[in-house]
Amino acid sequence: MLVSALPIPRISKVQKAAEKRDVIPSNDALWGMTYSPYKPDGTCPDNTGMLKDLLSTTLLTNNIRLYSTDCNQLQAAVDLISSNKLNIGVYAGIWVSNGDARTDSEIAEFVRVANQYKGQGIIKGVSIGNEELFQNSMTEDQLIQNINKARAAITAAGINDIPIYTTDTDAFFSKNLADACDLVQINVYSIFDSVYTSIADSVTSVFTRINTVQQKVGSNKLVRIGETGYPSAGNYNTQQGSIANQLEYVNRFVCNAKKQNLEYFVFEAKDALWKTGASLLEKSFGVFKYDSSIKLPITSIGQCVGY
Question: Which reactions is this enzyme annotated as catalysing (predicted)?
Fold first, then answer.
């Protein structure tokens, strides 16, 4: 069922579920989180389910990053945020990995929703693709062509206040690609490092990589982290996913990011059981469980004592 197929629920419809959480919403423990709305079976959520997800994110952040307009998720997210007066900014995504037809459709959908909510400040940015160079889905020249195509359509629609960029891993983000973007958004992980000593050392290495990208693209470009995180289960070589390791990674990263005034999205809002065929590790990066119930001790997130 498409999320836009049902009436937009008001917050009272799910308030009882939210009130059961033994936490005090803070909205500022994390700068942002990535959010994929899919249900565990891969189908689209209804609006009540999506509102429940959004209310969970407001316990920790006021920024979410989407990857696509699939399932009408951009329309639904902005509708729900606007109608319920939620303090959430949306960083949209346009999926470009599956050919021109889908790319063009997603660009048109983004333009439509952005025009509908023009001037309201809910949509804060849009990423044209995610890890296209890392996945080898296209060349750098082709990716830049897609960025320019999206920019032309967005500008032609009179939308001039939304930054346009792409997102890729730090190793693949060149100066040439940065020049085509309004900002540089990179995905940086340590869980896949071949050498591991400690979570503290891993976080230090992540910031070293971030600084390397900043030097490469120039100080005039904002560098934002599009994804970083640690799993609560599964393993990679000697690294073991666990609640304790996930919490330590998130806190060490967040506290260092605050010192550097760095914008970032923690990957990800909820566990991704919908990723058919993926490893347990890849399904377990959620700050919340698959149903948006509490997994990490969230009152401990963003508390920088000792970090």
Answer: Hydrolysis of (1->3)-beta-D-glucosidic linkages in (1->3)-beta-D-glucans
User: Which CA distances in Å does 124 have to 205, 210, 258?
Assistant: 29, 22, 20
Mean pLDDT of 211-229: 95
Phi, psi (rounded to 5 degrees) for 37: -80, -5
pLDDT(178) > 60: yes
Give me the mean pLDDT over the 99-122 stretch: 97
Please name every residue paired with 63 in a beta bridge, in sequence order, or none if there are none. Answer: 89
Question: Nearest CA to 303 among 230, 254, 234?
Answer: 254
Q: Are 237 and 194 in contact (CB under 8 A)?
A: yes
| C-beta of residue 276 within 8 angstroms of C-beta of residue 42 | yes
What fold does the segment set 25-300 form as a domain?
A: TIM Barrel (3.20.20)
Asked if residues 28 and 54 have their Cβ atoms less than 8 Å apart, the reply is: no
Question: Residue 274's Cα: distance from chain center in Å?
Answer: 16
Q: Which residue has the tokens 């940065």?
A: 178
**Phi, psi at residue 123, to the nearest 5°?**
-85, 120
Model's pTM, two decimal places? 0.92
Nearest to 95 by CA among 113, 79, 109: 109
Confidence (pLDDT) at 265: 98
CB atoms within 10 A of CB 238: 10
Provide the strand spans (E) within 158-283: 164-169, 184-187, 223-228, 235-236, 239-240, 264-266
- Hey, where are the domains in the chain? 25-300
Going from the C-alpha of 183 to that of each of 5, 38, 154, 166, 218, the distances in angstroms are 34, 28, 16, 8, 11
- Between the alpha carbon of residue 249 and those of residues 32, 72, 147, 230, 307, the distances in Å are 15, 33, 33, 6, 11
Locate 258 and state its tokens: 């605050």
- Position 172, amino acid: F
pLDDT of residue 191: 96
